[in-house]
Amino acid sequence: MQRMIARRRERGWFRDTLPFWLILPTIIVLLAVQVYPAIYTVWLSLHERVPTGWNWVGINNFTRLFNMGLFNESMGHTLIFLVGYAGLTMILGFFIAQLLNRRLRLSGFYITLLFIPWIIADIIVGIVFRLLVVPDYGLFSGILQNATLLGPNGISVLTTSRPPALFGAFPFPPAPAMIYLILASAWRALPFITLLMLAAMQTVPNEIIESARIDGASGAQITRRIMIPIMLPTMVVALFSLTLSGMNGVGMVFSLTGGGPGTATEVLSYLLYSIGWRQLNFGRAAALAMLIAVVNWLLISGTLRLTRVQERSI
Q1: How far apart are CA 158 and CA 195, in angstroms?
Q2: For residue 193, which of 201, 77, 292, 78 has the smallest C-alpha distance?
Q3: Given Cys at both, which of 14, 111, 217, 299 links 221, Cβ 3.0 to 4.6 Å?
Q4: Backbone phi, psi, residue 80, to 5°
Q5: pTM as predicted
Q6: DSSP bridge partners of 48
């Protein structure tokens, strides 16, 4: 009798703890892949590598980072890139989604073609776009070096320096390489954003649109007063996705411009790569990674807050 009671207790304990044992492999993977690297990054940001090992430097890595002129310049480049990249992709995605939402013939085929850039890696897209503007044999080199269209010497996208700044130390207007980087990045991200917009448009009830047309509303008024308010939560998520990917992506910059010409396209993510793997200054690179992580956290928190506000208003 006592043995039966003991067995029942063992089975009950196993049954109660079964969910934990089922998710234990996932917990171990998360600890190894996310938690440990995060803790190690914090530790690195407070130390400096010396020939004899690691020295505790506290917040000196952050102080030196803020005192770097290149860091302040990279912040400006990042802001210009994010505004241009996210704004251009959102606008183009919205208008292309409007075209596809009209149920054109072969619209499924068009959507399939549109999705092709999304499946190509950043590195490959950067290499392809770089080959398009190489001065000697690029597909667009004849147009870019045309003296009649673009001045006596034409223009070299990858080597033309940035014009003089209009706002003090803020790097605006951007170099041609930055504009080209924005175009290439928007081209790759456009399919995903367009599909998000299209899915949101298809949730707008046709009855509301038809009623607005009967009341005399124009197409612009329908878009501004009906479609955009209904699509706003999806648009916020799309904007968040673009901002987060643009903030952390380095593959396109690495393969297309390499941060050049000079430092004209040196965004924060590429500066992190340069400090860590070119200068081998892992402490300062970890400090920069911490700052980028804080920005990412602010972006996530802001997006969630906006989404909750929109859900309450709806």
Answers
A1: 32
A2: 201
A3: 217
A4: -60, -45
A5: 0.87
A6: 55
Structure tokens at 309: 């506000």
Quick one: tokens of 158?
């990858």
Q: How far is CA 274 from CA 81, 152, 189, 209, in A?
A: 18, 35, 25, 52
pLDDT, averaged per 10 consecutive residues of the chain (314 residues), comes to 57 72 88 89 90 88 91 92 94 90 73 82 92 85 75 79 83 91 94 90 86 84 87 87 90 91 92 91 93 87 68 54
Neighbouring-strand partners of residue 54 = 49
> What size, in residues, is the chain?
314
Domains and CATH numbers, the chain: 2-45 (no CATH), 68-313 (1.10.3720.10)
Question: Are the C-beta atoms of 129 and 181 separated by less than 8 Å?
Answer: no
In three-state secondary structure terms, 200 is: helix
As beta bridge partners, residue 167 has 170
